[in-house]
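Sequence in, structure out. Go.
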Amino acid sequence: DDAISHAARETGLSVVEYSASSRFPDASDVAGQHVHVIEFAGAVPSPDHRAAFAAALDTRLIGNNEDYQRRRAGDIGLKRPEIIAAPAGTFEAWMRSRGKRGGQHKVPRIINDAAVFASLLEAAAKGIK
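Output:
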C-alpha cells in the first residue's frame, strides 16, 4: 500500500483500486515479475505515465524491502513491476462477477491464486462494466 501511494504521489496519478500477483520465471524468461492491475481515476494513463508509475513503485519497494532489493539487483531475479491499467469500473464488475459485492468483500491486494488473477486480467482486458 505504501509503495502504491508513493508512486501515485510521485506521478500525480490517482489509484481507485489495485491488485498484484507474480509472474514466475519460465523457460523463455529467467526473471520473475510482479504484475499490478490498477484502476486509475479518470482516463487510462499513457504508456509513459504507467512506466513512470512502475519506476516510482519499484524504487519504493527497493527502499522498503531488502529481499525485493536483492531480487531486483541487475534485473536478474526479478524485473521491474508491470503495470496493467484497468478501465473504470473493472474492479467493481470483477468483484460482482465473482459474487463478492458489499462491505464484507474487499478487493484482494495480493492474489496468489493464478486462476483468480487470470480472471482479473481477463476483466481488465475486456474492460467489463
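Check: Helices lie at 2-11, 47-64, 66-72, 90-97, 114-126. DSSP finds five helices and three strands in the chain.
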